[in-house]
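Re: [ENG-882] Designed sequences occasionally contain unexpected residues at chain ends

Forwarding the minimal case from QA. Structure tokens:
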């Protein structure tokens, strides 16, 4: 029996296969950690965003158990219709206090995911007058920023990655009443850090908001793990921070921190926040423990160990024609080039017991497919040695 709609989709899937662009999932049967059971095999993974190794930390796991005992399995409703728990409120207060050195009259708002936070934030900032708003977005920003900008109905101007002169010229030429510059702090596929001091200076000259997506900086950068704003010692009422809590914080969700008026506006007008069920309070309860670990001595020690592992990876062997992108973060990309080549490289590593993800278009530009190697404070020096040995073999293969 012919099913034209299904057949059309199947042809598109077959095209992805032919282009080496079909994505496939693997199933993990163990907690998030460097050593995991993947599709029935014990593997050493270098592909998670659990940068501080908190996802399986005993104190965080116990806090999650306690949270479920206190609050049950679910919230039961949206934040504005009965689902906003004491755990959510306590977490927001703690995050606001953590970010207080960098924001004026700070308040924080907890979201189910970082993707939802960016949709909510950009659409709400432009919401008073979308026709009079313009969003200036770095060309390598995350998909959630791109989609949030589209949802906003504001004009969107994309500037070349890190091109401060182009951004300055675009801001100067803009006639929008609301101007919003948005950038990742740490770019998730390249591992480089945005020039936030210069971006903030440009925003202050032109009366623009600076929205910083600190998904891959929060918990990792800064002496206290406050992220990119602490890393650069930035403070301004024009700063709006989005940080995720499922990466370095090891649990789930995200938050926006900004001036209290900005947060109140999000509560009133951010549709992805208003019209969704609140995350389970147990997650927020667990995150209170996670945030304390990040800000305390253990967090400091884990960041120091992570820096040591990054230094160890400086000796990564690279085959001619490949490129190791410079990165001072836990994200250490190795650009291979073609889709077939990167898939083959990832499979060679997998066969040696190492799980490293192959990243292809549209996540990265065509022709720049790469192995996205990510480090965690839960890795040991011996783990990194094993990776380096496997990469050496890979670099020598024809």
């Amino acid at each position: 029996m012919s099913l034209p709609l299904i057949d059309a989709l199947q042809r598109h899937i077959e095209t992805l296969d032919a282009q080496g662009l079909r994505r496939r999932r693997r199933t993990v049967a163990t907690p998030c950690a460097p050593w995991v059971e993947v599709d029935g095999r014990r593997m050493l993974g270098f592909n998670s965003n659990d940068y501080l190794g908190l996802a399986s930390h005993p104190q965080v796991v116990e806090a999650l158990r306690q949270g479920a005992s206190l609050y049950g399995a679910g919230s039961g409703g949206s934040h504005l219709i009965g689902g906003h728990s004491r755990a959510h409120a306590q977490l927001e207060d703690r995050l606001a206090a953590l970010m207080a050195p960098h924001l004026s009259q700070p308040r924080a708002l907890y979201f189910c995911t970082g993707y939802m936070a960016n949709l909510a934030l950009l659409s709400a900032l432009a919401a008073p007058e979308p026709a009079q708003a313009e969003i200036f977005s770095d060309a390598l920003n995350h998909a959630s920023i791109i989609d949030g900008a589209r949802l906003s109905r504001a004009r969107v101007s994309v500037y070349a990655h890190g091109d401060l002169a182009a951004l300055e010229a675009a801001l100067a030429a803009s006639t929008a009443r609301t101007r919003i510059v948005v950038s990742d702090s740490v770019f998730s596929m390249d591992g480089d850090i945005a020039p936030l001091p210069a971006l903030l200076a440009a925003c202050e000259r032109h009366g623009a908001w600076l929205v910083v997506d600190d998904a891959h900086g929060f918990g990792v950068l800064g002496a206290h793990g406050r992220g990119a704003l602490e890393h650069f010692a930035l403070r301004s009422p024009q700063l709006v921070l989005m940080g995720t809590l499922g990466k370095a914080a090891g649990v789930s969700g995200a938050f926006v921190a900004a001036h209290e008026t900005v947060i109140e506006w999000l509560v009133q007008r951010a549709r992805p926040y208003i019209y969704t069920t609140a995350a389970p309070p147990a997650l927020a309860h667990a995150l209170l423990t996670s945030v304390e670990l990040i800000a305390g001595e253990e967090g400091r020690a884990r960041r120091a160990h992570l820096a040591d592992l990054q230094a160890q990876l400086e000796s990564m062997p690279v085959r001619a024609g490949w490129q190791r992108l410079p990165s001072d973060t836990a994200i250490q990309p190795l650009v291979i080039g073609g889709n077939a080549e990167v898939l083959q490289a990832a499979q060679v590593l997998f066969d040696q017991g190492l799980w490293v993800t192959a990243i292809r278009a549209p996540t990265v530009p065509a022709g720049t497919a790469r192995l996205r190697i990510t480090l965690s404070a839960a890795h040991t020096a011996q783990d990194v040695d094993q990776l380096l040995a496997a990469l050496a073999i890979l670099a020598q293969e024809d």
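QA comment: On inspection the terminal residues look reasonable. The chain has a mean pLDDT of 97. Proposing we downgrade this to a documentation issue.
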